[in-house]
Prior knowledge:
- By secondary structure, the chain is an all-alpha fold.
- It has one domain: Up-down Bundle (Four Helix Bundle (Hemerythrin (Met), subunit A)), CATH 1.20.120.
- It is 78% helix and 0% strand.
- The chain contains eight helices and no strands.
- The longest helix has 37 residues, at 188-224.
- Mean pLDDT is 91; it is low at 1-15.
Amino acid sequence: MMETSATAAKAAAAKPAADRRPIATRSARWAQRLAAWLTTTPVTPNQISLLSAVWAAIGGALLLQGSVLAWIGAALCVQLRLVCNLLDGMVAVEGGKGSPVGALYNEIPDRVADTAFLVPLGYAAGLPWLGWAAALAAMMTAYVRTFGGALGLAQDFGGVMAKQRRMAALTVALIAQAVEHALWGTRYSLLAAAWIVMAGSLLTVATRTLRIARRLNSQHLEALKPEVRS
């Protein structure tokens, strides 16, 4: 009985690692050194996850300011949010500082952070509804991913507008907007980014849903095959 419980606990601990988002920067030397240092401090992965939402809130506020320096600052906040998203998992998994509620901290601050960036993006671009639509579409990509995991499948982090790509598009748009505003005083870069994120996120929802359906159908067909006895 105790052996069964221990095996189940190990499986539960291994599942989050198996469902980790593939991030190339995770193998970068600076990231590994920073994560190793954070592991030696009292800082927890959950605190790092919360900090990502704080950076997003600051970035969203800067986005609304409407100045060159504010947009550059917002772009920096986007990247700091991504650094937090990178380090929380590394400190939790490689550093062995994970917690039973780590999955909640891994997901909820991410949804808050996306909304904190994308809703102000719509207002700054002059189409508030577009910002809300982009935020909702981004949240749907996460919903479909985690729903696939809840069905027993490996979580699908792919798609044309997964989180890293959403944030990359936003970073490029903010830098471009700073230049555009200095030269012409217009805001087409922000408007284009909002449309790209919304449309790309909806496409990501569709492609992830189709992949989940194919995997479920494949599992069903495998289950129907007669056992081959030797």
